[in-house]
Specification:
Layout: H1 2-93
């Protein structure tokens, strides 16, 4: 009788130990998976933000280059036009109209 109770008690203790080990392993695996997922999500978010910042900087540089080129072109056109107009007026003012009479 005592032998059976001892055997039953040992079997119950073994079962409790096995269940505890399984629960601990499952909890550790779940925690590791959650940590890995969080790290991956953070890395992806950081990479996306960095890529967006780089794209924004490139777009700003392109816009600045386009504006600088356009401004330079406009200034050159204005200078050329002004020079042309001034040279025509200078020519007109010095024209000799004596042959018309």
């Amino acid at each position: 009788m005592i032998r059976r109770r001892t055997t039953t008690t040992i079997a119950i203790i073994k079962t409790i130990i096995i269940i505890t080990i399984v629960v601990v392993v499952v909890v550790v695996v779940v925690v590791v998976v959650v940590v890995v997922v969080v790290v991956v999500v953070v890395v992806v978010v950081v990479v996306v933000v960095v890529v967006q910042v780089i794209i924004a900087i490139i777009i700003i540089i392109i816009i600045i280059i386009i504006l600088a080129t356009t401004t330079t072109t406009i200034i050159i056109i204005i200078i050329t036009t002004t020079t042309t107009i001034l040279s025509f007026s200078a020519t007109d003012s010095k024209t000799d109209y004596s042959y018309c009479t």
